[in-house]
Amino acid sequence: MPNWDELLHDKDEGVYIYDLTALKERAKSLSVSRHRIFYAVKANSDSRVLKTLMPFVDGFEVASRGEIEKVRMLSHDVPIIFGGPVKTQEDLKYAIEHGVTSFNVESLFELDELQTFCMEKDCHLTIQLRINLADIKNDATLKMAGVTQFGLPEEDFIKAVELIQSSNNMELSGFHFHAMSNNMDVKNHLAYVRTACDFVKRHQQLLPPEPVINVGGGFGIDYQQEKTFDMVHFMRQAEEMPLLTFEIGRWLTGPVGYYAARVYDIKQMHGQNFVLPNGGTYHFRFPKAWFHQHPFLVIKQKQKRSRRKTLQQVNAVIAGKLCTPNDVFGPAYYFEDIATDDLIVFKFAGAYGREISHLEFLSHAKPEILYI
Ligand SMILES: Cc1ncc(COP(=O)(O)O)c(C=O)c1O
Prior knowledge:
372 residues; alpha/beta; Lyase, Ornithine Decarboxylase, Chain A, domain 1; TIM Barrel; 8-stranded mixed beta sheet; 24% strand; elongated; binds pyridoxal-5'-phosphate
């Protein structure tokens, strides 16, 4: 655990802390797998995070031109898989011009664009069609298969295959299945991957001898800290499966990030306690988005100002500095002992933390990033 006093003694407004040493250890533990490990940049696209991961991953999965740019600023040739729905003509052109050769395709419109560019540029691309599996057991927090917008509609599957087969520039290398995020159940995840492998087997006549079976990410971290996703067990079981590609986000970066802010004010309003740090959901929207109790620490500090307020053994809502009642970090939290000038440090803030926050709202300062 970082030395909070040393790190944060002169910090006031919200900051992120990314523990790059811990990140390296997590990435190293996965890199022993014989499967292909890609990092899903959307979880945390900070350049030092990407740079730390680079030696341990096979490449990066991106979902936008911006993410391609961030990866290419660090390496001109590290493999990139381009995924996500609604990839426009400009997006695909940019990707091809920046050395992306692998695409997770979700639409016939995308294939039309890719075919046009390939012919123009005389390049060769490998295509994975994104399949939306309906029949998987899934208790994950975010479901991204079944009745969702993701993947190629079933009615377009044959047309997509024919289009690729008739092209001299595109090769159907396999399928992409990313189906969930924050799954805590190893057994369910293994069953999902087996369903994906069965799908590939049923369609093997369309594919090369060692097809891409891209099962995305989805490995959970328990924000309530009651259990852990047993990655060692999962990977051991997965060793016996055909070669897989993973696009892992949350599991890699989630636990190595923190969001901290100093308590500016404490109030009681009509019977409800509020703790107001000098920060807010514009920096760290995640607990609001999931409306859950996000794990946190209180770091006791010396009193900085002449006025002081305290709360002990009560519930209080943590609210930020935006002019909206929506700026709360989820439901009320229990505080053993908190005072103005103390620091609140939210744990598990390294994935979908800064990245999903509305940083421009009210034009407050953007959160500084500190590194360990
Ligand atoms: C296509 C795709 N791949 C990978 C990921 C990463 O998932 P996770 O952060 O759950 O590992 C996502 C996240 O939504 C995604 O949409």
